[in-house]
Amino acid sequence: MILIDGKKIAAELREELKKEVLSLKTKHNKIPGLTVVLIGDMAPSQIYVRMKEKAANEVGLKSEVIKYPESVEEKTVLDKIKELNKDHSVSGILVQLPLPKHIDKQKVIETILPSKDVDGFHPMNVGNLSSGYDSSIPCTPLGCYLLIKKIEPNLNGKKAVIIGRSNLNGKPMTQLLLKENCTVTITHSKTKDLKSECLKGDIIVAAVGIPKLVKGDWVKKDAIVIDVGINKTENGIVGDVAFDEVSKIAKALTPVPGGVGPMTIACLLKNTIECFKRSN
């Protein structure tokens, strides 16, 4: 079985991006800039933002974090986004989720210019992705897609089963695999006989947040299994896939942690550079 090393593949991608930033700087005397807006002091959000900032600096991007207290008014945040939309030194804007209850997530997402939406959540980018046009692609599904392509460059005619139908992962993942001529089945909490659906998959992407949901007897031999789940349990962090069982059967499998996570951040940097190129 191939253990899909997300850390190693993400490091290779960051190395490529570093060269690209250097070349943009040489040619245009400009470098892409990423601005992250962080509201409140939730520990996971702070950790993510620090990791994003570190990775951005590592590849040579300009990086800025704007912090607000949890009590900040919605208008203040929206006004700041509008200001960043007009700032030519900012290529990408990311507002770290989740947001405090009094701030409307959809309003925040829709205020970011689609051309600066590095998360790929703006309805215009979502629509472009599903129509097969150029768009920002959400970072986690993009990371999953690149990991799958590392193992199997030609996905023509493959059967893909996606567990989870979220806007964050399941739906964009579907669009990316359809573009590769896969036959895609989306499963979710109301799917009858999830096991039999999974057994048809040449590719399985599990993103539901249920610890060790996908068992060894759910997976056919030679399947590529991508585990997006990050679940805290008494025995530490586990994914949505029962690793010990599935690793005996699958052709390739991502570990948790160290699989999809590092790719998500690398793809955020990739999206920032793409936004810079599109707007220049």
The pLDDT mean sits at 97
Sheet with most strands: 6 strands, parallel
Strand content: 15-25%
CATH homologous superfamily annotation of the largest domain: NAD(P)-binding Rossmann-like Domain
Briefly characterize the structure:
By secondary structure, the chain is an alpha/beta fold.
Strand and helix map with partners:
Blueprint: E1 2-3, H1 6-28, E2 33-39, H2 43-59, E3 62-68, H3 74-86, E4 92-95, H4 105-111, H5 123-130, H6 139-151, E5 159-163, H7 170-179, E6 183-187, H8 194-198, E7 203-206, E8 224-227, E9 231-233, E10 236-238, H9 243-246, E11 252-253, H10 260-279
Parallel strand pairs: 1-11, 2-3, 2-4, 5-6, 5-7, 7-8, 8-11
Antiparallel strand pairs: 9-10
